[in-house]
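Honest question from a wet-lab person: if I give you the sequences of every part of a complex, can you actually get the arrangement of the whole thing, not just the pieces? Trying it with mine:
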Amino acid sequence: MVFAHGFGCDQVMWRFVAPDFEVDHRVVLFDHVGAGRSDLRAYVPEKYASLRGYAQDIVEICHELELSDVVLVGHSVSAMIGVLALQEAASQGTPKMFGALVMVGPNPRYVDDGDYVGGFSRADIAGLLDALDSNHLGWSAKMAPVIMGNHPEHPELAEELTNSFCRTDPDIARQFARVTFLSDNRADLADVAVPTLVLQCSEDVIAPDVVGRYVHGAVPGSTFTQLAATGHVPHLSSPEETTAAIRAFLTG
Amino acid sequence: MNPAAGEPDPGAQLGRLLEEDPADLYENAPMGYLSTLPDGRIVKVNRTFCAWTGRAPDDLLGVRFQELLTIGGRVFHETHVVPLLRMQGAVREIALDVVRMDGSVLPCLINAVEVRGEDGAPLLVRATLFEATARRRYERELLNAQRAAEESEGRSRTVQRVVSDMAAATSVADVAAVVVDRGREALGARGAALVLVEEAPAAGVPRLHTEHSAGMSGELLEELRAAAIGQLALELAQGVRTVVLDDRMRTERPTVAAAMIADGLSSLVLVPVTADNRRLGVLVLGLGSGVRGDLISLDEPEAVRTTGPADVELLWTLGRQAGQALERARLLEETARNAERSAFLLEAARLLASAADVAETVDRLADIAVERLADVCAIDLTSEHGVTRPVVRHRDPARQGVAEELRQRQLPQRGAPHPAVQALQQRRTVWVPVLDEDLLQQITVDERHLEIAHDLDLVSLIAVPFVADGRVLGVITLAADSRRGRFTAADVEVAEQLGLQLALAVSKAQRYELDVRTSHTLQANLLPPEPPEVGGLRMAVRYLAATQGVEVGGDFYDVVRLPDGHVALAVGDVVGHDITAAATMGQLNSVYRALLVDRPAPSAMIDRLQASWSLLGLQRMATALFATLDPVNGQLRIASAGHPPPLLLSAGHAEFLPVAPSRMLGAPPAPAPAHEWAGVLPAGASLVFFTDGLVESRSADIDTGLAHLLAAVEASDTSDPDELCDRLLTDLTGVHRADDIALLVLTRT
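Yes, you can. This is the full assembly:
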């Protein structure tokens, strides 16, 4: 089972969900290049100018670890990266690499397009990029952590946060945001040929219900599960419900 | 302490102030304060926040905090704040924008902590908000300044790269690629094309051609080209200009507009490419909705991107740099082309000079032409008999069959519109840069001819007449197929140079051939016929012209049967191998025949010729042997005028007859009469008369030659005259003879 984190933080996001699957699965967690503790030197702007670059990485990880019949769990943008990873694996002649896909809060196109509702206008995305800039201002490897808890009693936690969690090079974060929110992968959904679960949160501003329904309709034979969990990160806000939904899908 | 009545006690006042109501402190604190459930629903909010946002507390309670944020803020909240609170229990100084009741935005910095239960489950989130309008404005300015600096730096880098790339580009194609790529990069353009002004073949509208393009469809380029014709100068004069796809364009230039839409472009930026005010062309940049890759553009589909002054300045620089680099590359290419052309023409001259005759000359020229200059080369020659077409060559040997068919379809006759005919008649080069279908229909003589032209995919023609001494010798027709492309003015120049060379070579070859023909004709007339049949004698003669120099020789032989049954024999050699020698020989032969009427003895023949030499006006001296032979009894008389003696082969033994030579004919007459040798030619014996060409060579003197002859005759072991002639020629002469040879062998039977 491979867990792919979404836009924002890193693999630590899965800490309340992933351990539960370790009893019956080999669990693989990773940071996308540019996020978490990944090697920033591996960030090649040209490669990561499209979600396909990230998809290639997942396939490479699976090749390297000699994985097959993988349950790929992708959150947010990684749900779409997962769709592309399936294509990539098939084009490399290893269609059996992935056995199932779990899409947590997927959105194949954030920008509204005619009748299609993605939830955002272009101006919204521009505002989002600005919001990112506001919070990345002054960030750099040299600076003291901007986002960290004041936990003198837990220096290990502060250390963790200082070094990795949710901290990204601002240029990479901005580029990843562009790629995340300006991609259009609706046409790729029809290619998904493995059992797929669409996990839809409630009141999710990033992946509204209507989008989840759209994805469910576009992925052939997919399962749709509506979560009571609100927001965009059910594996943090409602890990039990999230875990149960994935389990139900895998056993069902 | 005893405070006096009426006097304020500062300590008590401060105490009262500090004992303010905690509720008031919460409600009116100089910061927003609110508590939410883990899902963001507000359960408590202070008055300050309400006042900031222009909302009543009741309007806020139960609302999710995220919903108060701008969209960007909401996304950031979901993707960063929520995870961080869950992971680390607190966040500090997060920049978020709160939307006020009236829709205006209040920039805030937020600190928040998550209150957790015993089991670690989240119970509540407490957040404080500080207004950060000024700080955020300052940060925004800082960021903008940083961006501007980055962009400026980016532009400098672009210019630097352009300069260094251009310096490395040596061909026009390289320069064009750099300009297009860098221009596209600099503006983030969807497509770009470098359109250059071609040198006009004649006065008129200059042609435009796309030197290099990327990301632009051929349709759009063609539309732009068509639109630019006629107003090119105007366009170029306008500097960096943006043409927007707007309603006006849609109405006035619907086809251009359609092509732009098809290419996803919303505007075109035209950048003049100039060098020292010479306008060389335009760099066209196509801007559109759509950043590179497959990402959605942030620009609204209908929005038009504008080009800022800094970009305009950058593009100006790019245009000027490109212009200079183009000029330099053109100069380089021109120099290289000139060198190549000179080498080519030199090689052509060398090949043509070594051709032996007209046929070989035109053949070689055709080879040379299709090797470098053209795909098909046809050469027509004119003569008094009309036009002939000795050669048509195709570059590809596999297609030579078609070329051959073209050769056999003789040139159309006078008055036909074919460029070759025109060139012949007008005595000037005819250049058809673009051979279109209409013209092709006109210049072909029939269906098949047209078919061949189509089959060969010919797109351009040059016909160059070649003229020497005011005489049109013929015409070279060169054709290019679509792979090679149309002929340029430079090609025409090379073709004309080839024409000049061919004119010289052909006229030289024709003159030479005329000389050779003349020489052969004269010689054929001058040389006596085969010896007559004479009873009791068998004879054979050989005459070989020298292989080098003029072919006609001054050698002769003569055999005449006299009325009394005797035979008069003569072998001679006029000095030289040229026409004068041949003419002298002819005259000498005639005079000799005339003198034979009186049947003088051989020595008397020499004396008479010597005596009348000055009257005859013969210009050259000559050597000769004269003899009379009675075939019945073998009585033989011989006299020599400076000529090698004949050789007698009798019973396997060979010897030179001791004929004492008198002076050469034409030398001052000797005081005494000529000597005469008399003897008998035994039956079965052979006599060999020869000229010195048989025994002289460059590598050995005449005595050695005579010794070789003697040995060869003895070794021949034959008395058959024909056989003996062949043996001697085989044994004594090589391929290259320096002199003519006359050989006469007779055997008395």
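Two things worth pointing out. Chain B touches chain A through 46 residues (CB under 8 Å). Chain B has four domains: 21-131, 154-290+307-331, 355-517, 527-748.
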